[in-house]
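Throughout this review, each integer encodes one residue's backbone shape. One record appears below.

===
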Amino acid sequence: MRIILMKNKSMYNFLIYFVACIWFTNGLICKVLNFVPRHEAIVATILGSSFSRPITFAIGASEIIMGIWILSRFKSKLNAVIQITVVAVMNLLEFIFTPELLLWGKFNSVFACVFIAVVYWYEFVLNKTPNTQ
């Protein structure tokens, strides 16, 4: 039993760092530093081009903050619910309005569902400790 708990804790820790890295990389590299301009094009298509750069920057900064929040493990269950909600809404909007700008087109929704499942699994299945923070 102890070995299973240790494996679960190791997997949980790995997934925490992995997911935080995804948020941080997407926020900093893709949006804040604008190395992937299609993110700004997606924002421009959905919200208009007038303020697409500042909005994309703000989204990127929010994603960096999300990565830091994940690593802090403060209110981790609330964090997981917010991650799941943000990814679901963001991908639904992109699926409807800008599938041609997505890296894998409408197939991006499959990756979003996998990401949501991973976040749910690590926080609500692997993390059996009550969230007391």
Notes: Residues 75 and 131 are 6 Å apart (CA to CA). The helical segments are 2-32, 38-47, 52-72, 76-97, 108-126. The longest helix spans residues 2-32.
